[in-house]
Amino acid sequence: MSYEIPMGPYHPALEEPYKLDMVCVGETVKDAKLHIGFNFRGIEHLAETRNYIQVVALMERVCGICSFIHTLTLCQAMEDLAGVTPPPRAQYIRVVMGELERLHSHVLWAGIASKLMGFKTMFMTCFELREKVMDVLQAISGNRVNYSMNRIGGVNRDVENPLALVEMVNELEREMARTVIPIFTTSTTARARCAGIGVLTHEKAVSCGVVGPVARASGVTQDLRKQAPYAAYGEMEFEVPVEQAGDVRARLFVRALEIMESCRILRQALTGMPHGEINIGETKLAFRTGTATSRVEAPRGEVMYSVSWKEGSRNPNRVHVRTPTFVNMPSVRWMVQGARLADTPLIQASIDPCYSCTDR
Amino acid sequence: MTVLEKTIENPAASELWNPDLWTVDGGVWWMKRGDPSESVREVAKAMNAVGARFITITAYQLPGAEGFKLEYHWDLEGRLLGFAFNIPGNTVESIFDLCEAADWIEREVHEGFGIDFSGREYEPLLLREGDTPGVNLRETTPAKPVPGSAQQEVKK
User: Is B129 in CB contact (< 8 Å) with chain A?
Assistant: First the structure.
C-alpha cells in the first residue's frame, strides 16, 4: 500500500522554502512532485522599473551565493547593448571574483553535504575553509555577500595586490588535497551515504537539460567557460571534471575536483593580471534598441540573461533570467524514485539547489 | 532550403553554419524562417535531431493588444541558437512532449504572462492553487514608478 509524505515547505536540510510530495511504499520512494514559489519576489517585473544603474544592484539580489555571477551576466548583456568592452584588467578581475565565488559555493555545499551525511567534523572543516574564501572576497570587495563589484563596462574595485592572494589559494588547495578530498573519496561514511544514491542517468540528464556539476556528474561534458568563453576564461588553462556514475558521490567528486581547478584558474588570473584601467570611466551610456543575451557558468551551472532595451529609454523593456537550479530541480523527481526515504534530503541537497534563484 | 530542412536532412552537415541561414545578433544565432508557418514544434524536432540542449523561452508582451513575442533558445556545443516568432493571441503549441526540459519553462511563461501552451496540462509552479496566471509579468495597468525616485516607467 502506498502513502504520501509531504516534505517541506521548510526544507529539512537547507532551511529554505520548497516542498516535495512523495509517494512511498514502505521506506521506498515511488514518485515525487515538486512545489516551488513560496518566496516568489517578482524581480523580473521589478527590473522593468529600474534604470541601468539600479538594475545592476537589483539583480545582485537574485541570489545570495552567486550574486557576482548574476551581475556579471547582466552587465555582459548590457555591455553588448551599449557597445562597450571592459578593459582587460577588469576581465581578469571578473575571473578572480567568479572563481572565488565558485570556491565559496562549492565548499559551502561540501559542508552541508557532510552535515547531511552525519559527518559533522567535516562540516566544521569545510566551513573553516569557506571562511578563508569569504575573507578574501571581503578584502577585495569590502562585502561578504553582495559584492557590488560589477558595473556596465568593467568593475568597481581593483585587486590591489593580486600576488598577495596567491598564497591563500595555495593554502586552500593544500587543505583540500590534505583533508577534504581524501575523506570524501575514501571515507566509509561518505561512500555508504553517497554511492549509488540519487542516480540521474546520462540519458535522463540530457533529456532534462540539466546543467553544471549535476550534468557533469552524469557524463555530460558541458562548461560555458570552455565552450563559450567569456571575461578572460579564453586565456586560462583548466580541465572540466566529468564523472559517469550520476549518483550523489559523483556530484561530490565533480565539485571537489572543480575546487582544485578553480585554484588553478585563480593562480593564473592573479599572476597574469594585466595592468591598466578597471572600467571605461564615467561615460554616459547609450543603449541600442534590441535584445542581448549573455550566459555565464555559475557554481551551479549555466545562468542566462536576456535583456531587451528600447533606445532612449531609462529602464529595460524586459529582463529575463534563467537560473541553473530552475532546470536542475525537476530532475530531483527522477533522482528520488526508488530511493530510501531517509536519503531524500541528501539527494535534494546534492543538486546544490538555490531557492532564492528559483523564486526570483 | 531553410536551416530547419537542412538540419533535419543532415544534422552533421558542416554547411549548417552557413551565415546565409542565420542572423547573428545580441550573442544569439537566430534561425531564419524559411516559411512563416514553420512551427516551433518542427524546430524542436530539428534541435533534437542535432542534439541541441533546450535552454529557455523568453516571452515579451507586444504593445497594445498585438499579442506576444516568444524566443526559444537552444545550446549546441556552446553556440546559442534562437528561434523567435510572434503570436497574435495568447496560445501557442507546447513542445513539452518533444522536450522534457521545456516543462517548467512553459509553466513559468504560462504563469507570468497567461500564455497557454496547447496540448498539455498544467499544475501550479510558482503560483499557488487558485492564483491567476498572468499577474506577474503581463501588463494590464502601467506599473508605478518606485516611490521617491525621479524615474519614470517607459511605456512599452
Answer: no
Q: What percent of chain A has pLDDT over 70?
A: 99
| φ/ψ (deg, to 5) at A302 | -65, 130
Cell numbers at A356, concatenated: 532564492
Mind telling me how many Å the CA of B153 is from chain A's nearest CA?
A: 6
State the Cα–Cα distance between residues A40 and B110, nearest whole angstrom: 15
Cβ-defined contact of A290 to B28 (cutoff 8 Å): no
CATH superfamily name and code, A41-356:
Cytochrome-c3 Hydrogenase, chain B (1.10.645.10)
Whether the model pTM is above 0.95:
no
Q: Phi and psi at residue B109, in whole multiples of 5°?
A: -65, -40
Over range B116-130, report the average pLDDT: 77
Asked if B55's CB is within 8 angstroms of A322's CB, the reply is: yes
Lowest-pLDDT range, A151-155, A253-257, A283-287?
A: A283-287
pLDDT tens track for B96-108: 888 889 989 998 8
At residue A105, does pLDDT exceed 60?
yes
Give just the sign of the alpha carbon dihedral B100, B104, B109, B114: positive
- Nearest Cβ partner of A292 from B26, B108, B152? B26
Which stretch of DSSP H or E encloses residue A35? strand A28-35
**E strand spans, chain B:** 22-25, 28-31, 53-61, 68-76, 79-87, 91-93, 116-118
Chain B touched by A39 (CB under 8 Å): no
A42·B55 Cβ contact <8 A: no
Domain boundary assignment for chain B? 3-89
pLDDT digits (tens, 9 = 90+) for B39-66: 888 888 888 888 889 999 999 888 877 7
B146 in reach of chain A (CB within 8 A): yes
- Which residues of A are less than 8 Å from B133 in CB distance? none
